[in-house]
Amino acid sequence: MVEVKNLSKSFGDHVVLNNISFNVDEGENFVVFGRSGTGKSVLLKCMVGLLEPDNGDILINNKSVVHIPIKEMNELRKRTGFLFQGSALYDSMTVRENLEFPLTRNFNFSAKEREAKVKDVLEKVGLSKAIDKKPAELSGGMKKRVGLARTIITEPELILYDEPTTGLDPITSKEISQLIVELQKDLNITAIVVTHDLICAKIVADTSIVLRAGKICYEGEIKGLEKADDPFLKNFFSSELVDAEAGEI
Amino acid sequence: MDSLIKDKDNPVAFSSSLTQFFTTIAGLSAFSLRFFKDVFLPPYEFGEVKKHMDELGIKTMPIVTVTGFIIGLVIAMQSQPVMKRFGAESFLPGMVALSVVRELGPVITALIFAGRVSSGIGAELGSMRVTEQIDAMEVSAINPYKYLVVTRILACTLILPILTLYVNFLAILGGYLAVALSESSSFQLYINAVFKSLEFSDLIPGILKTFIFGFIVGAVGAFKGYTAENGTVGVGKASTSSVVMASLLILLTDTVLVKITVWIWPG
Fold first, then answer.
1. DSSP readout, B18-48?
2. pLDDT at A225
3. At residue B81, does pLDDT exceed 80?
4. Which residues on B lie below 8 Å from A88 (Cβ)?
5. Is the residue at A246 inside a domain?
6. Could you give the 3-state DSSP secondary structure of residue A134?
7. Are B141 and A75 inside 8 Å of each other by CB?
8. Could you give the number of structural domains in chain B?
9. Are B120 and B26 in the same domain?
10. Same domain as B89, residue B191
11. What's the gap in Å between the CA of B140 and the closest CA on chain A?
12. pTM
């Protein structure tokens, strides 16, 4: 479904992604794990054309998404969902308007169909009562749920989650992670989840990669990470800092 | 512009500020030119334009009401003794009307509009930029420039001439108050004198240039907000710098437009 080939991205002298390659299968929950600032979000932004990679290629359904015309990119974007770290709900709109926004712009649903879709996705994320609230009236967890609802309302084939549990308490964090798994099962969506939250990664991941200094330092199941000998990887599971030097990025 | 003045004694910093200044001007030009391409592309966001016009009009109405009335009042009060000295009191209504309609009304309304609206647009879009709302729109395959920028620039361009007409009307009323306070003069007589002194060629240039001023206010505010970075600091910067830049551009453009106006309508 998604193929990343020799992808590199730098900002000035700072190399963020250094020649990374991996594949994501259809219907898979793929977790990109790593410390903050290791280029996880940059990777997602390259996939939807918010950033242009310096080198390499990204193929979605065997079609390159790098340096393609905006029209083609928009066609791809209509089939791809993106959940932002801060939810990125439109402040000036109610929850209902936030959810209807992509539907009215990109699809030809009638008002009745839109209403049904809005109610359906809100029910899925457990927020039916918040339909007429403004984002400012919602808690962090609720915003994430509404963001998730807005992402799935267009029934995308692929969802990119950028730190879906950051800033949430452990319980809400688990709820959101479980919601991601349920959505993947119900709708058979392929998901790439970028996170540094171990609990989220454990719940969500079918397979994973760990990024370190712009390179992939681990590829496989999350369970395998726990048994890794690498001090850097051990740091994610240990309550004590195993080797401070190894933790440097 | 501020950093240019501040860095004038330090050649390296001055050169860097100068580069930044021209980069901003180039960026603003490209950003504004995009408007003329995107405004004709569907979908046409008439509802959004109307919504922004309503908001901007309501937001600016109280301050332009007070200002408009006071401009006319003050001009008349200041000029009255001087005109009396030269026995030209009867020209007072015409003088107030001409000053307001040709120059003061459009420029002062535009400057107030810049202070009130450009900063608002800068802050709103800046906040949308730093909270990734603009990115969210983009990844939903919606053109954020068209939805957020074109609608705001269009609303500013269309609402400012209306506000200017309103200010002109109030300033003329203010002028009458000054006249009425000092001597007994009928309103009918005052208005007749106003209309006698005004010609079509006085009204048109003043109104036409407010379309350009409105465009400047919208474009500068949107540009500063749309390109904001560095979190909340960037939002604040976008808000304040958009007022400074829009006001400066309005005054510079006015200088050029006055020259053109006088050339076209010499009378």
1. HHHHHHHHHHHHHHHHHHHHHTTSSSP-HHH
2. 78
3. yes
4. 131-133, 135-136
5. no
6. coil
7. yes
8. 2
9. no
10. yes
11. 6
12. 0.87
Cβ within 8 Å, pair B141-A91: no
Q: In terms of domains, do B32 and B107 share one? A: no
Instruction: Give the DSSP H or E segment for A108.
Output: none
Within-domain flag for A213: yes
Q: Give residue A43's domain range.
A: 11-234
Among the listed residues B203, B206, B180, the one whose alpha carbon sits nearest the alpha carbon of residue B191: B180
Q: What is the mean pLDDT of residues B176-193?
A: 86
pLDDT greater than 60 at residue B208: yes
d(CA B263, CA B267): 9
Tokens of A128: 């039916």
The per-residue pLDDT for range B55-70, each reduced to its tens digit, is 998 889 999 999 999 9
Domain of B14 in residue numbering reads as 1-38
Q: Which candidate from A77, A78, A88 shows the least CB-CB separation from B131?
A: A88
Given this model, what pLDDT does residue A247 score?
Answer: 47
* pLDDT tens-digit map of A198-244: 888 889 988 999 888 889 988 888 888 777 777 777 777 666 666 64
Q: What is the pLDDT of residues B3-13, one digit of tens each?
A: 556 666 677 77
CATH number, domain containing residue A219: 3.40.50.300
Q: Which residue of A has its CA nearest to B134?
A: A88
Model ipTM value = 0.88
Instruction: Name which of B1, B21, B4, B30 is nearest B226 in CA terms.
Output: B30
Domain count, chain A: 1
pLDDT at A239: 67
Beta-carbon separation of B132 and A88 below 8 A: yes
Asked if residue A199 lies in contact with residue A174, where contact means CB atoms within 8 angstroms, the answer is: yes
* Of residues A78, A85, A89, nearest to B141 (C-beta): A78
The alpha-carbon gap from B247 to the nearest alpha carbon of chain A, in Å, equals: 27
